[in-house]
Design goal:
By secondary structure, the protein is mostly beta strands. Helix content is 13%, strand content 42%.
């Protein structure tokens, strides 16, 4: 996943991740390119929790509030899950779908690209997913 905020200076968040569940109840673990765990986010109807190695967990009202605080932009979680599960992704208000390459297949990863133009700053999101057997 790559998230770029068109601010001055430009801010970029890049991490590998595992995604489980759905937009209502789910879990996402973030890793460096070397496989070191950066953090784990869990969410359900009661809110979201961010767990970091060696730090106290932080609680938020939603996964959107958590992503806004730590990535600088609200992640379009429903769009990502729809695409990952083979449904037609729908961009939430303020976002536009730039590219939705064929979803994940046994032969390679799929790619999702979206841009948020409102509210500012402009945000570029790229997600690559590869299905695993785990």
């Amino acid at each position: 996943m790559s998230l770029t905020l068109e601010t001055e200076p430009k801010q970029t968040f890049t991490a590998e991740f595992d995604l489980q569940g759905d937009a209502q109840i789910g879990e996402m673990q973030f890793y460096t390119s070397l496989g070191t765990t950066l953090a784990q986010a869990k969410w359900d109807k009661d809110g979201a929790e961010l767990l970091s190695q060696g730090k106290a967990s932080l609680h938020f009202n939603s996964i959107q509030a958590l992503s806004q605080k730590y990535m600088g932009a609200t992640l379009p979680v429903e769009m990502i899950f729809a695409w990952a599960n083979g449904s037609e992704p729908k961009a939430p208000e303020g976002w536009s779908l730039v590219q939705s390459a064929p979803t994940i297949s046994a032969t390679g990863p799929g790619e999702l690209r979206a841009t948020r133009v409102h509210p500012l700053p402009v945000v570029q999101l790229r997600v690559w997913l590869k299905r695993t057997s785990e």
